[in-house]
Amino acid sequence: MNRTLSKVLVISLFFVFVFGLDRGHAQNLLDLTGWTIGLGTSGIFTMNGQESENIREWGEGPQGNRVILWKAQPEGASDADGGWVTSYFPIDHKHMYRFTIWIKKTNSIDGTTYFGCRNVSSLAGVPNSNPYFWSGDLPKLNRWYLLVGYIHGSGDSSEVNYGSIYDGVTGDKVLTMTDFKFSTTATATNHRATLFNDPNTSDRQYFYAPRVDLVNGNEPSISELIGLQFAASDQTYFAGKVGIKTSTPGDYDLAVKGKIRAQEIKVELANWPDYVFAKDYDLPSLRETEQHIKKNGHLPGIPSAEEVKANGIDLGEMNAKLLQKIEELTLHLLAIENENQVMSNRILSLEKSKK
Questions:
Q1: Are 216 and 95 in contact (CB under 8 A)?
Q2: Please, are residues 86 and 192 in contact by the beta-carbon 8 Å criterion?
Q3: Cα gap 25→246, rounded to integer Å
Q4: What is the pLDDT of residues 213-258, one digit of tens each?
Q5: Which of 114, 128, 228, 320 lies 20 to 30 Å from 178 when distance is taken between CA atoms?
Q6: How far apart are CA 214 and CA 18, in angstroms?
Q7: What is the pTM of this model?
Q8: Residue 49's pLDDT is what?
Q9: Phi, psi at 246, each rounded to 5°
Q10: Are 38 and 27 in contact (CB under 8 A)?
């Protein structure tokens, strides 16, 4: 494979796996082909401030991966100090859109971080010429945060703000943000993530994975976007329920909409069916089992095909039920073998008596 083709494949895989453009979800509405190593404006990303204040370089992302970051590096004046304003992209004003960006600030809390958009109104319908989902200082320095903002569809009467800032280590919501709404005449908007008024030349603000999704159920869940930033331990604690390819785990602590492959699965279960071998166990006769099968179409104590289709099966419980049936069959086989032995002894005895 030639070097040019290798570079194309590497870049393609980079955008697929790092920014999640093709993960079984709707595609990021932002064109990230300009997200490459370099300085200043690139692609749809128009720099905020001077070229020297906007550097794209390799660094460590929120999940500890090696990724391309956009670094804001203030030059000393208290004005525009890094970040971007994207080109406008088309939208359908009737729908809700979700805007996201990872941000990390280092060294000091000088300056102000901004995250916003354009061509929107407040949820009450008041036009806003300079809309920001949020502006201020992130809770901690040297820590990644995921900022998630929403623009409601023009016909949405809700005035509830869904936007939040999430801690990249714990996954917790740490700050709320302001939602906006499209007017019926809106046809486009943009994505803005910037640093302003930071005179400290030692400060750095890092941006990663800018994203805009149509909110229609196909967008990545917040849990998928956040992941967890692994610390020194290789163990991870999830305070709440976890859904993989599903945002509705229901009553389950872990819900997976898809296949699972593992080298070992251990199920802890009480009441293992050794009770079948107890002297007082009421072993159903084979005749009773036959009658149950004829009447119900399945073994006693085993769910029907309709029940399994509707509710699935509990692996631990089902293994216990199957073992119970195996142990019952074992008792019947032992009884039959004993009867056969008795019959065999009688036949031998009769044969001897005839001689």
A1: yes
A2: yes
A3: 12
A4: 999 988 999 988 987 543 334 445 455 677 787 767 888 888 888 8
A5: 228
A6: 19
A7: 0.61
A8: 97
A9: -150, 140
A10: no
